[in-house]
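Sorry to interrupt, but I need a hand with the structure work. Could you add the entry underneath, on a fresh line?
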Amino acid sequence: MVGGDCGTPGNSRLKMLEASFVDFGSIFTEQLHRNYDIGIAGQYVSCNSKYLFKDGLRSGNGGDDSEDLRVFHLNCQGLNSSFNFISEICELSIFQVIGLTETWLNEHNSALLDIPGYIFYHRNRQFRQHGGIGAYIRSDIEVLVRSDLVLFHKMLFEPLILQLRLNPKDVYVVLPYRRPSGSIPAFFDILEEQLDKLPTGSHPFFMLGDFNIDLNDMNSNTPIDFLQLCMSYSLFHTINICTRVTTLTAKLLDNILSNSKFSDPGVIVTDVSDHFGISASFKVCFPRQQGSRLKMSMLPVLNQGNLEKFKQEISNVDWNNKVENLDDINISFQRFYDTLISILSKTCVVNRTRSRKKMPKKPWVSPGLLRCINKKDQLYRDSIRNENDPVCTRVYKNYRYALNKLLRNAKKKYFECKFKDASGNPAKTWKIIKSVISSTDPVLPDKVTTRDGLKSNEPCNALSEHFATIGARYSRTAVASDNDPPLEIFMGTSVDVSMYLRPVTHDEVRKIIFELKSSSAGSDSINLLVLKAVFPSISHILTSFINACFKQGKFPNCLKIARITPVIKGGNKNDLGNYRPISLLPVISRVLEKYINIRIYEHLERHKLLHTNQASKLWNKLCMDIQEIGSLDQFKSDLRVELLGRYAFETD
């Protein structure tokens, strides 16, 4: 069992609900064997679900070596209100797939619900309020959104179909939601048509959601018809106890159906919604994939032990044999680069282990508030066990109301103090804002519109072509103003001295490297900490490489490779013009660029080639002190203010 069961005494309503459904399960299993000649039906239908609590899930094994695909679903009735609970479920690192129905999201708030370690895929309801489906998929799994397979009916059926790129076969995950007021026969027709389009017989397949069909209803044929329809596509239900329990009713509305063998089916009791969460483990036997997302999740683990191993391996390398000559800077630097990355991957990359901390990661939750949260959970369990006692229910609701108010005030005071401490420091302020937004890897739409108005089903290739050509296309359309002064005004006095890139010294290289502040790794996974750690062992060869680049007038090809992240600037996500690229170059590339910049600046400064109006290009100088300006009107004839437009920094 992934988590511990509720362990309630004999008068527990949950235990009674578990026992009450066993009869229906056995009756239905017997009817299936009688009506269908399916030899393996018993091992799927005779499931034994149990009620679990969230704290019992902490004992689950969510390690990376597991071959089980663990799936969770909740009808959250508003992701904004249940976001803290979903975040805590994600922090347990037990589930690879977390499906949600009735997210109640729109285009304005769906971008603010990212969770580190997971990527959020969603489909919002467009024609009216509420509804909506979403899924958090662990970020080391490559996912395709299969909108081409979706059959959508706004009054009956809202599906989200995801294709998980796993080995040995891709896994298909379908998250449907059926409106409770919709026609059930019409729903069966569209569900059958939808399943016809999906590879239920050739790939591992999971359908998890709120079907709004009570499988515990013994007075209707609808549950039998629904399960028979699913069984005709080799899909078997995993949950056989009630998932929506109130003081008056107990219904089984949510379920996970699959064609794979399952284990540990459970219903997670929670008070964030009137539906309980459901979970199960499936034997899909997928080894770790060697895709780009896996490389991103296997960045160097830079603890002291690994760094010492890395430094020791680098110090033992004979660079004279590795790099015989520097006649061709591209070949020689590529050998140096490959050696560095090979040793780094051997000594510093380990399987990532996931935290099992019981203390929540929210810094405003003090130990006292954590005890209050546990107390609230205990009161909720007592209110379920004693559903006939109105005092227990009233005590729980009053305590929950008071606790939610305390949590909101604690969070508000925490961020008030953080912003107060960051007053006057824009960088620190933006860091706090980004921590609140907690954005993760961007999720591109499955279709994008190019500048020419064409539709593309390959957003990555379309964005790459767009970023590579936008500068040239925009420069062709840019028209110079007649009021622009001639370029010669800003050129200054011409000189007959050519620019000379003076060789760098060992001390200069060391100074520049240790003055760099950005620690982000480029496409090579080498960050600044790694470079600083091994600098004593590679300082001589790195200095020789930089001087060879100056002498040959070449920039190594391997240092031109950047990791580009598209960032939405605003507006329609399907429009390529609304994205801007954020490029992360290798750290060594930044070092070489720094020296070229220094040498060019030295030449311009030595020969007085910089115009006085180019003060913004000079180091340690300000264009003007805005506090000294009384009115801008007096500067209209002399001052030209240029606004940074939509395409700033996108042209050469």
Q: What stands out?
A: The chain has a mean pLDDT of 75. The first strand starts at residue 50 and ends at 53.
